[in-house]
Request: fold
Amino acid sequence: MERFTRFNVVLSEEVYAFLNGLKPAVKNKIISNIRMATQVLDPKLFKKLDRSEIWEFRTLYEGIHYRILAFWDKTDTSATLVFTTHGFVKKTSKIPRKEIERAQRIMSQYFQSKKG
Reply:
């Protein structure tokens, strides 16, 4: 069965740094989940945050919740991109507001740099 990629993912330098700070098994699981999320609609892997334009790639590994926040860039008609902002270990039931605000700042800077 051929796999269809619904969108492309761009990993930011912050996400690379986050991933490189993790154990190889965790890093591989997160990367695998990101790849899978590009091919299947599954909110266990990729989900929009309430009242926000920010999305999260979700990974649960050995009881620890890892999150990589992202946003959609549909300004280029040739490709649909999801740009990742940063990653963190989720320690509470809700995503901390500061993490969402950080992702929103990065998203604003990203689109401002595309304009200028």
